[in-house]
Amino acid sequence: MTNENFVALLDRLEPQARRDPAAYRTKVVLLALLGNAYLVLLLLSRLAVLGWLVAAVLMLKAMAVKLAIVVGVFLWIVAKALCVRIDPPAGRAIAATQAPELFTLVDRLRRKLGARPIDRLLITADLNAGVVPVPRLGIFGWPRR
């Protein structure tokens, strides 16, 4: 996706998000769940085929072994693709006792925006601010912020 395409997409979606934020958020969550459901369905279907092939090995021997190897390799590739590792950002962690005003400001902004609590605050060389969700379960979420 080019930058122009991305800007055009944002221009098309921003009015929807402003008009009805709850409906837009629901739409985004449902699309994310649909994507995850597709991956889980793909993985489960390959597991079912692999189970069928393992049962067929007991009866057909040579042909089923070859098919089981092909499906097993595909299953391994899909499972490996689901295990995404996102490295946490680098920086110097600070405690609330070191910068109480900063923590108060961050907490006040978080509450005003309705955001979830932040687990760790880092000082980086970027001279920028942001929240980086690092998923604990790969693509399935449960992020640390």
Provide the domain count.
2
Number of helices: 4
Q: How large is the radius of gyration?
A: 23 Å
> What percent of residues adopt helix (DSSP H or I)?
55-70%
Characterize the overall form: elongated
Structural class: mainly alpha
Overview features:
145 residues; mainly alpha; two-stranded antiparallel ribbon; 4 helices; 4 strands
Topology:
Elements: H1 3-19, H2 21-60, H3 62-82, E1 92-94, H4 100-113, E2 121-123, E3 134-135, E4 143-144
Antiparallel strand pairs: 1-2, 3-4
Describe the structure.
The chain is mainly alpha-helical. 63% of the residues lie in helices and 7% in strands. The protein has 4 helices and 4 strands, in the order αααβαβββ. It has helices at residues 3-19, 21-60, 62-82, 100-113, and strands spanning 92-94, 121-123, 134-135, 143-144. The model has no long low-confidence stretch (mean pLDDT 79).
